[in-house]
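Dissemination and training. As part of the outreach component of the grant, students in the summer workshop were shown how a complex can be specified as a set of sequence lines and then modelled as a single object. The example used during the hands-on session is reproduced here so that future cohorts can follow it. Participants entered these lines:
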Amino acid sequence: MLAQVLVSSITAGAVYALIALGFVLIHKGTGVVHFGYGDQVTFGAYLVLIAQVIVGLPFWLSVLAAVLLSVLLGGVIYGGFMWPLRNASLLARIIASLALGTVLREFSRAYMGPNAWPFPFLLSPTAVSIGGILVVPANLAIVGVSLGILGVLFLLFEKTIYGKAIMAACDNRIGASLVGVRVSSVFLAVWVLASVLATFAGILVAPLLTLSPDMGLIGIKGFTAAVLGGFNSLLGAVIGGITLGILEALAGTYISSALKDMISYSILIVVILVRPQGLLGGLTIRKV
Amino acid sequence: MIPRLAISAIAVAAFFAAPYFLAEYHLFQICLISVTALVVLGLVVVTGLAGQISLAQSAFVALGGYGSAILTASWGVPLWATIPATAFFVALAGFVLGQLTLRISGHYLALATMAFTAIVQLALIHSDPVTGGASGMPVPPFRIFGRTLASGGELYYVVLPTTVFLFLLVRNLTHSRFGRALAAIRQSETAAEAMGIDVLRYKAVAFAASGFLGAIGGGLLASLSTYLDPAQYGITQSVYFLAIAVVGGMSSSFGAVLGSAVFVLLPNFLQSFQSYLGLVFALLLLGFIVLRPEGLASLRLLRNALVPAAKSPRASR
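and obtained this result:
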């Protein structure tokens, strides 16, 4: 029983981890916390759906089209909103990212209707029994992809000069441009990357949750995972996501399934209050 | 002094004359604008003035609406008494939530208040015996002086004076020691602290004020709509209130009224595009925050028309 609960909870955890990775990527790379990221994930899945249902492309081509469109979306978000607001107050940037998410969500609602859509699995959703524990290949894929993306991003940030450039640009715009980093292209690249990641996450997550305009509310779980792991740590995002998934499943099984979500939001508040740097994050010192 | 008296006299006359000239539907719309403006005034205090981002406003509205309706439904205390009483307790809750700002600000504050809203909404949904759960609960009728105010046209006599009173209160508070202290905190907490302002207490009081205004608005909104549906009090609704504040002008109490008027009246003009309404609101928010973050209230034309004080030499620098 416990083993089955744990195995199933890891899937939910991987979903949170995948979204948290996007948050951390944007925050680590550009210093912005993107409050509309959950909606962007949903929008990614809707892009596939639009290409498939409205345009009539086959599934694989729709995925490709959605990825290309999300590259464009990342560019528009950076060029149209984040670049003009680079010197605006933190408050304005927070509200702008909330607004971006709301625009994407309301577009999906207006264009595709408020109801849920069926979304195809990439892999088989039938459970396979391994040693008495039921495992679903489609769910395993999410875990695998999350770990894979973690690996790629980790290599990018820690082992390549591009990662160093991203960190430098985020840390000190003027300093980075003085040593020859083209700051605007770096930020553009991060937004495009995060946008593509959002679309992949949407495609993987949509069949598990139901794809409706309000699926973006999953974003708050991704936030919780990111905060739990430390907002600047990629590894922390994955560990935070899996931890959250397990905590939720345990709370849902042994306390009350109705209280499951309330418990994870309470975790968010408690972690923010008690350990704002998260499990793996370093302390940032605020200077006057 | 005389022009101000004259303006007040005209306002009072217009208030009593309006029900004879306007249709029931228009009075209802006026009530809706007033109530929304009350809720948004709370955001003007906490976010516009004190600079603390809050996504808790719809939770305060929910607590105000549910609290007063439940007290009236189970104990028979009239709504005119339970709405302010509930608002007092919601203000206390706001004060406690404001204590969070000791440790957190910016992104984390947005997240924590977001989580607060989600928790309140889930608590309402899962407390079936008291709140009616996911299907919601009816609001008992608003009785005062032995009369039952059932329609927007009748509630008008309660809603509008309450809004005007609280609006003037907030307006005066902004120009008081309290308002200046909050503005100082917004600009630099460190500098404000160095000047001897008890930063945490002021921020917590700002949250309490936003809770109070939100709860009064919530209680009146519940009476107007006669039904409480928990789906209406989520994070999305908090963003909606924030959008009204931004479009109207975050740092101006007039902005709250302007923004509310735009958001309440706009659906009338977009009748044939009902399904695009949410998108239009979202685009308005995005457009204003990028192009004109000070909102409608900062447009010179509107400023001069609405605020005669803006013409004074002090404001013209």
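The first strand of chain A starts at residue 128 and ends at 130. Students were then asked to discuss how this feature might be tested experimentally.
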